[in-house]
# Entry
Amino acid sequence: MSKFGKIKISLSERVSRIYTDLRLGIPVIIRAEDEHLVVPVETLNQIRFDLFRSLATDLRLVVSSRRANTLKMSSYDKGLARIEVPADRNLEWLKAVADPSKDLIYGIKGPFTQMRGGDTRVEHLGLLLSKTAQLLPAILTINLKVSEIKTDNLTSIEISDLLSFFEQDPISREIISARLPTETAEFGKLHVFRPELDGPEHYAMEFGEIDRNSPVLVRIHSACFTGDILGSLKCDCGAQLTEATHQINMNGSGVLLYLNQEGRGIGLANKMRAYALQDEGFDTVEANHRLGFEDDERNFKIGASILKELEINSIRLMTNNPNKIKLLGENGINIYERVALKIKENKFNAHYLGTKAKKSGHLL
# Structure
C-alpha cells in the first residue's frame, strides 16, 4: 500500500510564486480582516480589467507618496495615496496615472477622489511587492467582500505571513567558488551567493590572499548593465568598477562585491524610464520620485550578509556614499576607513554627479 505525503511550501517559496504572478499580471490575494485582490497596474491587461469592472464596484488605485506628489495629490496615508477608480475611467487612465512616461501624452488625469484613514497594511504591502518585483509602484486593489470575482485559481497569503517575510533579514549563502584569473589580478576567486529569500544571485570577487585579521579593502558595487557592460557615459558606474579593481590590484588583495541591484534597486526597465525623464530635463533624483521610487531603493543588508559569510567583519570601504557606510555599520560591519573612489566626469554625466553630491550627499 503506497503512502502519500503533502509537499509543504515554505513562506519564501510562496512569496516567490507571488512575485512571478505579479510580473505576469496575475492578481494575488492578501487576507487581512477581509480578502483583497492586488495586481500591479503595469502588468494588468484589458481582459482582466474589464472583468474587474463588471464584477466589482470597489476598485482602488494605490500609488506611492512620491508619485502622488507629482500628480499634485495629498498623501493622507503615510507613504501612499488611495484613489477611487471612477466608473468612466478605463485601463489607459490607470496606466497614465501610474506611469510618468505618459504625463506629456495623457494630460489632465484628475480630479481625484481620495480615501483616508483605516487599515492600509494591504496597500503598503502591495506597493512593496510591486517595487521589489521591479515594477512601477502602483497597484489596483479590490475588496473581495463586495465583489463577485471567483478566486479559486489565485495565489493567496495571510497578511501576517507577508509581514513576517519582509521583516526577515536577507541572508545569502555561498553556492560555489572557483579560481578566476583576470586582467587585473591573476590570483582571483569568484564566489556565487544565492539568497535564502526570493531574489537574484550576487557575486564576490576575491583578489589575492585576504588577511581576515586586518581590515580588508572592499568595494560594494551595484550592477549597472549600461555602465559596466555597454560603457555608458551617463553615469560613473563602469569607471568606478574599473578603478576599484585597479585599486584592489595595487593593494595586493581585496574583495569586490557585485550586487544585482540594477538602477539603485529599481531594475533596468525603470532605470530606462528614469533616463527618459532625464531627457525631459529632470535630474536623477527627480526622475526616481516621478516614477514613485525613493532616491535609492537598494538593500545594503545583502552586502553585510555576504561579507559575514566570507568571514570579513572589518573593512576599508571604497565608496563616496556616506549612507552606504552608515547602513553597513548598522548591520555589523566595522568600517575601519573610507577609501575615496575618484572618477573624472564627462559632459554626459557632469549633471548626474552634481546631483548625487548635492541631493544624495555623495563625497565627490
The chain has 14 helices and 14 strands. The CA atoms of residues 134 and 267 lie 5 Å apart. The first helix runs from residue 11 to 24. The chain has a mean pLDDT of 91.
